[in-house]
Specification:
Blueprint: E1 2-12, E2 18-28, E3 31-42, H1 53-62, H2 65-79
Antiparallel strand pairs: 1-2, 2-3
Amino acid sequence: MLEKQVEEHLEILPNGNIQIKTVTKIIDDGVVIASTNHRSVCEPGDVVVDKSARVKDIATVLWKPEVIAAAKAAKQAANNPKK
């Protein structure tokens, strides 16, 4: 039996977030007998050293200082709505 983890889908959202879908497959004699999905999100400015090279490359190109600043401002505004 073999367990294989595959980064199956990456999606870039308008706000700069990178959504990651990872699938873990259990393979026995070349046949997938089970699989599980895991989703995660990286926000502009997050540390991505533990992510795949693809995610790191996307973050490097996409997350310029102005994108990170805009994401932080939007997050702060959402957490502190005006009354």
